[in-house]
Sequence to fold (298 residues):
Amino acid sequence: MIYFILLDHGKRLSQYVRTLITACMSIPIILCMKFPIYIDEYCVHDLRQIPFIIGTLYGGWPVGAALLVIILIFRFAFYGFNLLTVIVYIVIFIITALFSSKFNSFNRKNKLNSSILLILFLGILTSFISLVMSDYFQITEAYVFYFIILPPFIIGLAVYIMEILKDAILIRTQMIRLEKMEVVSQLAASISHEVRNPLTVVKGFVQLLKTPDLTQEVKEQYIEHVVRELNSAESIISEYLAFAKPALEKVDSISINREIGYVIEMIKPLASMNLVTISEQLAPALTRGIFNISSNAS
Fold:
């Protein structure tokens, strides 16, 4: 949950997804080893393999390798060196990393089923390896419950929650994109309506210029009207492009009344289309904030 919260609210963190997964999975790994389950005097068990497998499935072999190093370092720091532990977790890492790419191509249902079957298979396989390599290792009822039966339920719940959160973030992103597209389409419709008016005027005056026996003074008046209307259309298009075009950002003093005035001028065409009259009473005011700078500005 913390991983998706950070990923959703920290857009700059999106380029460090694997680092973020590693950090969010390593903390529960360490806590699992710090507070283990004491099955008997010969068997101390914890659920560290669950965040290890989840991190490797979603992050691939780089995340899995980092988590493997973290597991082994803290395992040896807490309980001392054990060759069997190294072999068991290397086996888990290799199998999970090889399955990771296919896992990420599945839909939610297949991810849920495959993760449950994977951890069940790994639990049985590592138990068999431990039986073969260790004379002290015993499979008890408590071991079967904590190591074979319980992990599939936990990893299934964890994967389900992660998929729900991922879909929620994706849907919210798509909704924001659709809202932006709707705003842009409305602006485009209002601007095309507003540009059509001066172009209609220009067309009329150009046709009038074809009238024979016009005096030079009248021609100049018509041309002046044409230039004024073209400048008006150009101003409308420039404001729209300034709104839609990505630009550099800079923190500086911003005139609130000036920026609100820009916004009012921008939405006036849309208001006019809907028979809405905008009245303004703006007082001078300053604040600190981010404003856009054109990339070709001097």
